[in-house]
UniProtKB/TrEMBL annotation:
<dbReference type="Pfam" id="PF00227">
    <property type="entry name" value="Proteasome"/>
</dbReference>
<dbReference type="InterPro" id="IPR033811">
    <property type="entry name" value="Proteasome_beta_3"/>
</dbReference>
<protein>
    <recommendedName>
        <fullName>Proteasome subunit beta</fullName>
    </recommendedName>
</protein>
<keyword id="KW-0539">Nucleus</keyword>
<comment type="function">
    <text>Component of the proteasome, a multicatalytic proteinase complex which is characterized by its ability to cleave peptides with Arg, Phe, Tyr, Leu, and Glu adjacent to the leaving group at neutral or slightly basic pH. The proteasome has an ATP-dependent proteolytic activity.</text>
</comment>
<dbReference type="InterPro" id="IPR001353">
    <property type="entry name" value="Proteasome_sua/b"/>
</dbReference>
<dbReference type="InterPro" id="IPR023333">
    <property type="entry name" value="Proteasome_suB-type"/>
</dbReference>
<keyword id="KW-0647">Proteasome</keyword>
<dbReference type="InterPro" id="IPR029055">
    <property type="entry name" value="Ntn_hydrolases_N"/>
</dbReference>
<dbReference type="GO" id="GO:0019774">
    <property type="term" value="C:proteasome core complex, beta-subunit complex"/>
</dbReference>
<dbReference type="InterPro" id="IPR016050">
    <property type="entry name" value="Proteasome_bsu_CS"/>
</dbReference>
<dbReference type="GO" id="GO:0043161">
    <property type="term" value="P:proteasome-mediated ubiquitin-dependent protein catabolic process"/>
</dbReference>
<dbReference type="GO" id="GO:0005737">
    <property type="term" value="C:cytoplasm"/>
</dbReference>
<dbReference type="GO" id="GO:0005634">
    <property type="term" value="C:nucleus"/>
</dbReference>
<keyword id="KW-0963">Cytoplasm</keyword>
<comment type="similarity">
    <text>Belongs to the peptidase T1B family.</text>
</comment>
<comment type="subunit">
    <text>Component of the proteasome complex.</text>
</comment>
Length: 204
């Protein structure tokens, strides 16, 4: 088993019409043993930017604290909110700076730019950026997520339709992965704010 799969879990982000969704499951495990059912893998950076982290939970916690610190330093120095594109470069350079002893985490970034257009990207543990116009996935069931997203995704979805699409994509993929699941959380980011909803999923 890869160290990236040791704790299980996955993250999915999907773009809509002037909105974006990011979601993850709740399971925290030690290989095939479930330890907790309230793991947090999605972290708000500001009201239009969210960061999802998959991989080793200790590194996820470390990176969350590190990025919050760097974000606060940026906002104090620049006196403005960071753009999603700029934040993705900050995350990438941080990961690449530790390439000889990397953090075992693969980030997914979702947000709205200054024109309220969706921005999505995912990275590997060395910080290689892969921007996407439709959806981005990471985690133990990434292959299943790619299949379900390709099936359900449609361009220019309204927020409610986007919620339904990302929820069905995630729940269908979780049913095919034994080290992810135990419910999920979905965040819908629009220009008017963020809506967060909990999903019931497979509980075995």
């Amino acid at each position: 088993m890869s160290i990236l799969e040791y704790n299980g879990g996955c993250v999915i982000a999907m773009a809509g019409k002037d909105c974006v969704a990011i979601a993850s499951d709740h399971r925290l495990g030690v290989q095939l043993t479930t330890v907790a059912m309230d793991a947090t893998r999605i972290f708000p950076m500001h009201d239009k930017l969210y960061l999802g982290l998959t991989g080793l939970m200790t590194d996820i916690t470390t990176l969350d604290q590190l990025f919050r610190f760097r974000l606060e330093m940026y906002e104090m120095r620049e006196n403005r909110k960071i753009k999603p594109k700029t934040f993705s470069n900050l995350v990438s350079s941080t990961l690449y700076g530790k390439r000889f002893g990397p953090y075992f985490s693969e980030p997914v970034i979702a947000g709205l730019d200054k024109d309220n257009k969706p921005f999505l990207c995912s990275m590997d543990l060395l910080g290689c950026i892969a921007e996407a116009d439709d959806f981005a996935v990471a985690g133990t069931c990434a292959e299943s997520l790619l299949g379900t997203c390709e099936t359900f995704y449609r361009p220019n979805l309204e927020p409610e339709d986007l919620f339904e699409t990302v929820s069905q994509s995630l729940l269908a993929a979780l049913d095919r992965d034994c080290i992810s699941g135990w419910g999920a959380v979905v965040h819908i980011i629009t220009k008017d704010g963020v809506t967060t909803r909990e999903l019931d999923g497979r509980m075995d």
